Amino acid sequence: MPLTASMGFGSSSLMWFRKGIRIHDNPALEYASQSCSHLYPLFIIDPHYMKPDPNAFSPGSSRAGLNRINFLLQSLNDLDINIKKIGSRLLIVKGDPYEVLIRCLKQWNIGKLCFEYDTDPYYQALDIKIKDYALKTGIEVFSPVSHTLFNPTDIIQKNGGKPPLSYQSFVKLAGEPPSPLSTRYSSLPPVGHLGNCDISEVPTIKDLGYGDAKLEEFSPFKGGESEALKRLEECMKDKNWVANFEKPKGNPSAFLKPATTILSPYLKFGCLSSRYFYQRIQDVYKILPKHTSPPVSLLGQLLWRDFFYTAAFGTPNFDRMKGNRICKQIPWKDDDKLLEAWRDAKTGFPWIDAIMVQLRQWGWMHHLARHSVACFLTRGDLFVHWEKGRDVFDRLLIDSDWAINNGNWMWLSCSSFFYQICPRRTSMNHGLLLQAFRPKQIA
Fold it and tell me: How many CA atoms lie within 13 A of 125 on its CB side?
């Protein structure tokens, strides 16, 4: 529900894009566009995520590799194009998000501030400050949950104040998600006077200080809502494939046509609504009632995403071993040479090194490939701390997601959620595969 104060501050709305980089099924955008004289669609280039870091092991900022930054810029360009088609434009401002937002709220006479709710710790802390300022100055705040199928807070409340830690218990609590919005925009309210805010177009990689990076160095997967909806349509055309999808089956070495949807980067940035994706899968199931079921089905994968979001949101220190009540305290090795050999594709294991090359070049890999390299680094062979591997994935993956990345690394290292195979004992699937390629030593 919107947060309101007794006095309005202005008749204009500010739509603050963070994730949720789309027009379809965007409750914050729909609410922002109602009953206002002017609408300001804003994205803030946050140095916290975008400023070049010359000390990082790969090109990019301190928080993200260049592939993910480029994917984000492509997504913003696409959003700008789509918004311009309905009479508006995307406003880009660089700087500290809190400082930028306060300045814009004042200069643009904003009475209504709208942005998608974000469970990540960074935005949780930021949003508390923003909401506090808005309420004190009489600005209405509307921050709906639309990045996930369900509101994690609701699930946690249903579970007695704690997040469910098994998939089955989560699904029982979740029920059916809300339907996506069917809003179609013929136009948006115009952008008003911009004052002296330093507005720019969507920057290029070069504009951000990354020099003359060549396009062939980037991931083959293009960012943006338009590409997301195009990929979704292509997937939905093959109804039998959708109905029979079964994880973990699939060929992780398929190169020209990967054996999965490759929609995870679009879900990560909110270029694709998970609720709309869910609905489209259900539409196929109505036509083909004989289909796979959660947890292995395609619909089940969306539920896995929400499961990890809920677990992360309700667990303090979810992104670390120490102080994390659901994480086993394991005496992992602290061996930078082993970590670097794994990270830089120099282990001497052809399968592992090929995956890590793909990760660096594409920013993406099949889920079974991710399982292989994660198990190899942790419980399977090298016994290196899962946090170290998590950091590499977090940097290089275009679909890196705080909740899902941490959750999967704990799972695959047998630190949480899944304990059937003890650490330091290689699983049958990965062990037999790796034994065939075992070198005498790490190269």
Answer: 3
CA dist., res. 53 & res. 104, Å (int): 28
Burial readout 46-72 (b: 16 or more C-beta within 10 A, e: otherwise)? beebbebeeeeeebbbebbbbbbbbbb
Q: Hey, CA dihedral for 251, 253, 256, 260, is it positive or negative?
A: positive
Helix (H) or strand (E) holding 233: helix 225-237
- Residue 83 CB contacts under 8 Å (≥ 6 apart), including other chains: 23, 41, 89, 90, 188
3-class secondary-structure state, position 440: coil
The stretches of 27-65 forming alpha helices (DSSP H) are: 27-32, 47-50
CA 387 to chain centre: 18
Q: Tokens at residue 241, please?
A: 């494939």
What are φ and ψ of residue 442, in 5° steps?
A: -65, 130
| Length of the chain in terms of residues written | 443
Closest CA to 93 of 51, 46, 39, 44: 44
pLDDT tens column, 225-235? 999 999 999 99
Q: How many helices (H) and strands (E) does the chain have?
A: 18, 5
What is the per-residue pLDDT across 250-308, written as a single tens digit (0 to 9) for each?
888 877 788 899 999 999 999 999 999 999 999 999 999 999 999 999 999 999 999 99
